[in-house]
Amino acid sequence: MAKKVRKRTVTKRKKRRSKKKRGSFFGALFKLAFSLGLVGVLLLAGYMAYLYPTVTDQFEGQRWRVPARVYSRSLELYVGAPVTRQQLTAELTRLGYRKVDNPRRTGEWAINGGRLLVRSRGFHFWDGDEPEQYLDVHFGSSGISRLKEKTSGKDLAIVRLEPMEIGSIYPSHSEDRVILSSGEIPKLLSGTLLAVEDKRFYQHHGVDPIGLTRAVVQTLMGNRQGGSTITQQLIKNMYLTPRRDMKRKLKEAVMALILDAKFEKEDILTAYVNEIYLGQDGNRGIHGFGLASYFYFGAPVSELDLPRTALLVGMLKGPSQYNPRRNPMAATKRRNVVLSVLLDAGLISESQYRSAAAAPLGVTAAKGGGDSGRYPALMDLVRRQLRRDYQPEDLNSDGLRIFTTFDPWVQQQVESATDKRLQGLEKQKKLPKGKLQSAAVVVTPQDGEVLALSGDRQPAYAGFNRALDATRPIGSLVKPAVYLTALEKPQLFSLVTRLSDTRLTLEQNGKIWEPDNYDKEEHGAVALETALAKSYNLATVHLGLELGLNRVIDKLHALGVSQKLNAFPSLLLGAVELTPLEVAQMYQSIASGGFLSPLRAIRDVLDQHGNPVQRYPLTVNRASQPGPVYLLTTAMQKVVSEGTSRYLNTIMPAHLNLAGKTGTTDNLRDSWFAGFSSDYVTVVWVGRDDNTPAGLTGASGALRVWGDIMKPLNPRPLELHPPETIEMVTVDKETGLLANHDCYEVETRPFLRGYAPMGLAPCAGGSIDGLFDFLNGGNGGVLDKDGHPDFESWDNTGSERQPRKSGDGLGDFLRSIFD
Length: 819
Description:
Blueprint: H1 2-60, E1 68-71, E2 76-77, H2 85-94, E3 98-99, E4 108-112, E5 115-119, E6 123-125, E7 128-130, E8 134-140, E9 143-149, E10 159-160, E11 165-169, E12 175-176, H3 187-197, H4 209-220, H5 230-238, H6 246-262, H7 265-275, E13 277-281, E14 284-287, H8 288-297, H9 306-314, H10 328-344, H11 350-358, H12 376-389, E15 401-404, H13 408-429, E16 436-443, E17 450-454, H14 466-469, E18 472-473, H15 479-487, E19 498-501, E20 506-508, E21 511-513, E22 524-527, H16 528-533, H17 537-547, H18 549-558, E23 577-578, H19 580-591, E24 595-596, E25 602-606, E26 621-622, H20 626-641, H21 648-651, E27 659-664, E28 670-676, E29 681-688, H22 702-710, E30 726-732, E31 746-752, H23 768-776, H24 810-818
Parallel strand pairs: 1-15, 3-4, 12-14
Antiparallel strand pairs: 1-11, 2-10, 4-5, 5-8, 6-7, 8-9, 13-14, 15-25, 16-17, 16-29, 18-23, 19-22, 20-21, 24-26, 27-28, 28-29, 30-31
Helix pairs in contact: 1-6, 3-9, 5-6, 5-7, 9-10, 10-11, 13-22, 15-17, 15-18, 15-20, 17-18, 23-24
């Protein structure tokens, strides 16, 4: 009996010992777990403390470096504006406005009978804000005939459409974005984002355990699904590298917790909307929904409807895979998945779903070109002029707004005309396809604003910019400078002065130079304006040599040619290498009436707060007196009406009175035309990059491109208003001397006052000596105290005359023959 009791006691003692051991084990395990947990919490706290400044400093400071935005001119609408309905609709299309039956939202337009209805967008200009308006635009035969506010019926004085963004300039990176504030994010966009990307965004604290668990379960079941919250995605894009491993995921989660604890949900969502990557455009990344809306749809995000919003949100899963331009089928399928999520969440109705799922993607054509957009040649000019006109420190800040002189309508005509015409010329001349190249510049006559620029026959190609960098011999484009130099000496030369168009032999650089006319003929004694209109080389060389090469060079410099020029006789026939932009500067000085305005592509630069940036002052210099320029311009009009540019009269109305000059270089390597109306100075070059002959004269090549550009622009007639220093005199057409009723062929020509011919033509009873004297030079006029013609005096009726040395004029030469 005692043994049994002892045995039971021993058994109880063993059980107590076993329980004690088990209790000690679990206690130790608990202590270990607690210690490890405490260490983990301390390590996590330390890691969070370490990451805290990284997260908060960048989020609180400047989150993004925003590139400078470059804008075109804004189209101004007012009664009398020469804007056609075609031009306005093209402008609205470029700006991303949508054609509808009845405009109800900003950014929509419609045709209603003979007028356009437009819901214009607002825009902040350098001189104030342009509000959103509902416009009713009526058109007449010459432009806008009435402009009123549709709702109130009130007549409007002037309305500016917003300018088109034509490119961006980055200080030090290649990301691009349009920053949206919290209030600028449409509810449709934020609601779609949360439904698709993070349903519990407002419930979790940066990391969503429920969503993470669901993602793990779905992945184990074979349906790979992400569990990252919007906060985590923002952390990944703003702070971390694309590398995928547990260490980076842990860091992402910790930083998300910090971000969520420190900042408001609305701030996080706004940052996400502006940061997320949504595609690539050349060398720039498309970040944020603000820019993506413009990039894919050509419209601000506030104007996006349900299907386009769903498309952008759907692209977050894979911007390249679901790019609607490259993969429209995949993009449509993904968009409809997003729409089904919204339907299941009760955010849209069944009818809304069906309508949106059946809608086209609505993306615009790809513009391409990266930061230079579709206009790389013009952006090249903008960058160069920024460096020329602004201090570097002025341009280092982010968010600059650069307003240019660029006119998209004019540029469209340049682009559409160039390649089409060159294809025809290649076929006509049996040249290899794609070998002809071209450059074109269009500027305004009075202030030298660059309206359009093309550096390649494919203007969107961001390669060699021929408009700025192709220095080519200009041929006869130099001749207006020679003739202007002569017309500034009215005591010797006028439009009707006879020049000798005869062969001559000269020595140049130790070699014999024998210039010739294009037709290989001599034309004897020809009127100065005829020599220019017909582009006679021999007459021009005789004239230039008589004037002196250095005087001609000085005049070229006065007209805007900046490079050093060698005083060789061949300079008189265009052995001067200039770029199309430099030629445009020269002809702007002539078209403006003698005032050189440095060509410019930039009007205003504002900082990110809308304040003007300091710039260098622009200057205007007098290149020549108005009287001689007036005479030259009338002669250049004869180039078009009677001379080498007569082709223009077959495609454009004669009443435009256009002025211009063709240019052709040796062996037909370069074809040029420079011409102007009252509102445009346009220069075109056509040739080959390898400098082999193109087989084109100025008239058969560049002139044709010039006409194709100008015809749809409907230029204003070149109406010359003679200055007070000009008088009109009737002369005999054959001799240029004064005519009377006995003369049969007469014409009225302009002269500088006081320098008209004094002798009578033979048909009017004049003597042969009078003719010889006239051939020696002009008649009458007075000189100022320095011995120069008195251009400033409109009452220049004196009889004094600067004598020419005996025997050095055409009249003396002919007199010697007769004597």
